[in-house]
Amino acid sequence: MKHFTSTLALMAATAIGGQALAQDVTIKVGTVVSGDHPENVGAREFERLVEERSNGEIDVRVFTDAQLGNQREMVEQLRSGTLEITWVTTGFFGSWEPVLGTLEIGYLFEDREHAFRAFAGPLGDKVAELVEPQGVELLGFYEAGMRHLTNSQRAVNAPDDIEGLKIRTPRATYHLRTLEMMGANATPMAFNELYTAMEQGVVDGQENPLSNIYNAAFYEVNDHLALTGHLHLTHMVLYSGELWGDLSEEHQEIVRQAVLDSAEVQRAKVAEDDANLLSELEAKGMQVTRPDREALAAAVAPLRDDAVEEFGDAAQELLDMIDAARAAN
């Protein structure tokens, strides 16, 4: 599955002196975050595993910091067959399969373990069924993490404090509407544009996991961090559907298994960051508050009915799968 512009140098095995040369394959991986981010910890582990297990037949090249484009651009590159791998959250893919936006309604998941259970079960299979007709191959899931709110204007001690804050969100409909229901003036924007937008006052703040907040140095432009925990998001690790068939079956298995194995390392890094970065952010001068999550969850709860009204049984099926994966009382 590799014919990637500069890399998928799938050199057809050539017979020389009765011997066939092994195919050489290059896989490009594009991300929008910094090199130390948990996503790229996963990408580097994927790189290591694939190159080791293929005995060097596959060369993996990781491009961080939106070098290959923003998330939307890279998904389109997958669909057109000019990039092998990137990942986006399930809701972000709602631009191509709208019902997936349902998965980014606030407070659907109790915690990260709830999300892991859900995507390891029927929900993960259903997501694959929905995304793969759009020109991609779903290989597995990385953890995007639990999102919290930051801003430059005021401390958020209660839901009312969010009212009117201009907060950047990804371009995902129900993600944006979650912030609106929380009281924010939600503004969609690409991640790589965000720091400058906050620095210039185009937006007051944003919402992201602690790892994003720290690695992107958002503490330099936002003084206030509210531990809202309003969304736990999951990345779909996607391969170009057009290029997937260019890989041998052996290489496909190596790539698929490396995604599953690297996900464990990537999730461990997310957990480490969640455990350690709060004190680091406080040391950088951020004021940390803990607003009432139950009140915020009640504010966004109507979005479940909105999604069912918009998408009918397709949305209800996704919500039922999430609810079925809740921990037993």
UniProtKB/TrEMBL annotation:
GO CC annotation, single: outer membrane-bounded periplasmic space
Name listed for the protein in its UniProt record: Putative C4-dicarboxylate transport system,C4-dicarboxylate-binding protein SIGNAL
Superkingdom of the source species: Bacteria
Record-linked InterPro entries: DctP_fam, TRAP_DctP, TRAP_DctP_sf
Record-linked NCBIfam families: dctP, TRAP_S1
Assigned keywords, A-Z: Periplasm, Signal, Transport
Keyword check for Signal: yes
Keyword Signal: yes
Subcellular location: Periplasm
Gene3D superfamilies in the cross-refs: Bacterial extracellular solute-binding protein, family 7
Positions of transmembrane segments: none
Entry's Gene Ontology BP terms: transmembrane transport
Similarity section: Belongs to the bacterial solute-binding protein 7 family.
Pfam families assigned to the protein according to its UniProt record, in alphabetical order: DctP
Annotated signal sequence range: 1-22
